Amino acid sequence: MGFWKRIGTLLFEQPPTLLFVEHGKKVCETTKHFLAAMEAFSSGGDIEGIRREVDRWEHEADQIKHEIRRKLPRSDLFLPMARGDLMDLLWQQDEIADKAQDAVHLLGLLPMTLPADLRGTWEKLRAGLWESQRAYCNLIATLERHLKGERGLAERMRELLLEIGGREHEVSTTEDELIAAVYREGSLDPFSKVHLVEVARTLGQVAGHMENAAGRICLLFLR
């Protein structure tokens, strides 16, 4: 490609911001199956088939992540926002899928019957993550409409950001409740307790990265 043609391409080609939406959609599919794995774990269902679906969607998200990295100009001169900020958003959003995948793999490593005293807190945690996932995926859908030129969506995106933040707080509180209950549970051996604590911490990270990614979406695209 000639020098001036390359410069023209950099100046007038739109940055691949919609690819962040496509990446977000793959992340949403990953977390949808992650929630199904949480339900299967508590009910004694099969996790292996769900794990394969999680792996598939996480891999597709990774492919889009690599495409974004290839297409983003290396200089901020040709972007409406700092490249580093966009890469940080990409990392936070990708971590949602990564942590969901980690959690599902952990759940499949040590099948167990969840003690009755833990089931209520587990379901409360799953419900909080379901609400977080629903709000985050609504934010991705709204961002797509915003990037395609639909007006009047900024307030809705800010409302979803606040909701995601509130849900993250609920999930974090329930995560702590679950960990405390695991330590008190007399029917579990020490290794099982350590395993469930690691699972709980990983589940909480999913909601944490949703909150972080949502904040960066609103910061970058609602200016």
Describe the structure.
- The chain has helices at 3-12, 18-43, 48-71, 83-109, 116-147, 154-184, 190-221.
- α2 packs antiparallel against α5, α3 packs antiparallel against α4 and α6 (154-184) packs antiparallel against α7.
- The protein is elongated and about 55 Å long.
- It is 82% helix and 0% strand.
- It contains seven helices and no strands.
- It is an all-alpha fold and 223 residues long.
- The protein has a single domain, classed as Phosphate transport system protein phou homolog 2, domain 2 (Methane Monooxygenase Hydroxylase, Chain G, domain 1, Up-down Bundle), CATH 1.20.58.
In brief:
Helix content is 82%, strand content 0%.
The CATH homology group name:
Phosphate transport system protein phou homolog 2, domain 2
Number of domains: 1
Describe the main β-sheet briefly: none
Compute the CA-based radius of gyration. 20 Å
By CATH, the architecture is named: Up-down Bundle
